[in-house]
Amino acid sequence: DRLGFYVIDECDIETHGFGDVEWRRNLSDEPLWREAYLDRAARMLERDKNHPAIIMWSLGNEAGTGDNLAAMADWMRSRDPSRPIHYEGDYDCEYVDVWSRMYATHDQVAEIAVRNEPPLDDPALDARRRAMPFLLCEYAHAMGNGPGGLSEYQELFEAHARLAGGFIWEWLEHGIRRADGSMAYGGDFGEVVHDGNFVIDGLVSADREPRPQLTDLAAVFAPVIMRIAADFRDVTVTSRYDMIDTAHLEFEWVVESSAGVIARGPVPVPVLAARGSAVVMLPALAVQHAADPERVLTVTARLAAATAWAPAGHEIAFAQLSTVLAPRYVPGSRGSYRVDERGALVALGDLEIADWRLELWRAPIDNDFGGGWDDRERPPLAERWATLGLDRLVSRVVSIDREADATTTVTRIGGAGRDELVELTCRFTALDDGVGLDVRVVPLVETPQSWARVGLSFTVPGTMDSVQWFGRGPGQSYADTGQGTRLGWHAESIEALQVPHVRPQESGARSGVRSLLVEGAGRSLEVLGEPFTATVRPWSTEAVAAATHLEQLSTDGRTHIVIDHLHSGVGSAACGPGVLPAYQLQAHPVWFSLRQIGRAHV
């Protein structure tokens, strides 16, 4: 009521468990339970009817269908005709006013948006439903690392009047903190029937700590959209407010380099009416500084004054444009590196490199174990990757060609017991204080297959403690997430890079990286190159995959680094659609380069 939320008030009715017995004798259709259903409906409506935030009544959640629910709708409509009735389980929309679904795919939502959905058998009901607005009462299941596809859903919502939007499932992870400090989930207390860690699904942890997906969602839901022109001269500002103008906002530009903030100033955006738009010229000083090499321009929208929900200066939207170029290097002969007889890089000067390998697998995220609602004919990604043996790759050296200032290695790699081989070619070129690296990965069979990533992983001695990078940050980002991250120069401890998932899984990647510096334990390592994705951890991918609880992870005395050229999206298949085609990683020939791997120049 105070903050202006639109609220759907839902009755506390759920008979979800009857689905396991094909809805036999479901309470929603049992006459004996009719008065109990009506009593719950009446108590909710009479309690909450005077709250202006409530725009709709909902009969309940996942309770099948039946006459008792229809009776609730009739009573609520007669008692309060001012508000529509919602219930997702009424698929034919016989007794509701809004068509609602859970986890409809992007393609399905796009069809519904233009009223091109498959028809119902009953022409009258079909016409009634086709005239209704469409709501996703749950979508984008926020479990573990994910969900992906938020931006694509939002684009559909914004483009089509029939689409009323949707609700992320869900706000809060339902873990239970045990006396020893660990977080518990289904099965940890010896119960026979449970859902494992399926209740660990939320935008915030059970302790109310924000997960990365909350930052992404804030960016996706931002009430103002900004687009900076390619020549830096103007910015297009569009309001997504439905009721109010933008008088409460102030806009600012900032130009940064590796040295920090170069200049900043206000952007003269006029007050926009609800859903209004304007093209605003950026000040000459902003254009001048932003166009210089190695600069990042950021335009922000912030609250001009404190509100009931945030202080003055709180950022609600941003846009960026960059002139940062790929790092350059000059080949030389002073670089000291060593490649062993297995074709693995084992030393950079006096820095030991271990466990050098091609990486095509990741520690499965919760979504990798799910059978995507749009791809149920195929096994989950985690199962497909395990079948291919991506978690147990073995290699055989084909050739090693050593020149005066370069070494070229060719190895064939595949899952133990499988014949889906790839050929890895690495050309190491001597540089001052390190090596340049050109990589080619080519599948040797035409069998359709997907990979989790294409990259190189290795370890260095000691537990390093800090990372600096130019790329997206400060939070994690994957192919279909990271909307809330921004391009710039970032620094974090290695501990802060880790996402403390209750059930450990792939996380913590930083994408769009051009320079990476890892330091600590008296050592340093720098990686420069075309945009890559970097993951730095105090434990191995295998350790992450083997752990069932966060407390099982502990350092092994080395720093683990993965440099990815490509990495699959994360999707929402734990409950909902899988990875969108644009973010899937199908096996194909890959070429990439790292400009330098070596000791940092201090």
Description of the molecule:
The protein is an alpha+beta fold and 602 residues long. The protein is built from ten helices and 30 strands. The chain has helices at 34-48, 67-79, 106-113, 123-130, 150-159, 212-220, 284-290, 381-388, 494-497, 541-546, and strands at residues 7-10, 54-58, 85-86, 99-102, 134-141, 163-169, 176-177, 183-184, 224-228, 234-239, 249-257, 260-266, 277-281, 296-303, 315-322, 337-339, 345-348, 351-352, 354-359, 393-402, 406-415, 422-431, 434-443, 453-461, 466-473, 486-493, 510-520, 523-537, 558-567, 590-598. Strands 19, 20, 21, 22, 23, 24, 25, 26, 27, 28, 29 and 30 form a twelve-stranded antiparallel sheet that branches. The protein has a four-stranded antiparallel sheet with strand order 12-11-14-15, covered by helices on one side. The longest helix is centred in the N-terminal third of the chain and has 15 residues, at 34-48. The protein is globular, with a radius of gyration of 27 Å. The protein starts with 6 loop residues before the first strand and ends with a strand. Mean pLDDT is 95; it is low at 329-333.
Tell me what portion of residues adopts beta-strand conformation. 25-35%
Biggest pleated sheet = 12 strands, antiparallel
In whole angstroms, how far apart are the ends?
56 Å
Q: Summarize the amount of helix as a percent range.
A: 10-25%
Choose one word for the global shape.
Answer: globular
Q: Average pLDDT, to the nearest integer?
A: 95
- Tell me the number of helical segments per DSSP (H or I, 4 or more residues long): 10
Number of strands: 30
Structural class: alpha+beta
Unreliable sequence segments? 329-333
**Quaternary organisation:** single chain
Rg calc:
27 Å
